[in-house]
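Sorry, explain these tokens?

***
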Amino acid sequence: MSGATISPEEVQARRAAGRVALIDVRTPAEYRSLHAEGATLVPLEELDPTALGPEAPVYLICETGPRAFLAAERLKAAGRIDVVVVDGGTVRWAAAGLPVVRGPRTWSLFRQVRLVAGILVLAGVTLGWTVHPGFYGLAAFVGAGLTFSGITDFCGMALLLGRCPWNR
């Protein structure tokens, strides 16, 4: 991950000095659970570079950083250069004691990914052992996906889960 970053404390100081566009790119369910006070929800899959206001720069925040970096790359590819990622995301923001809005607890998107990946691997191994060896391919597919995600910092399963009804 590369690009401009800023500490949550510095963002808060700049917010105190004037209007700052703080965009939270997590799922609506994650946002409802906990978000930085004053952050505007624009889920990553709905991020439209042309719909953002003229405020400069745009500060992006997610759970810990990866989705904010993906959003920054998308905005930069569309020609916007004044994009900054909040270092450590909402987790660091809350840990710093900065103002947050808390709602009902929900599972983070990446916790959901770990659960689904684990279930799929267990199912593939169990079915491969008891039904047909071809089912081992399911476990291998999930393992390959996790490896790809680790190398590229892109998680297709997270994008799919983010579109599920319970994450809306």
In short: Residues 5-102 form a domain with the Oxidized Rhodanese; domain 1 fold (CATH 3.40.250.10). Residues 109-130 form the longest helix (22 residues). The beta strands are 5-6, 21-24, 34-36, 40-41, 58-61, 83-86, 100-102. The chain has seven helices and seven strands.
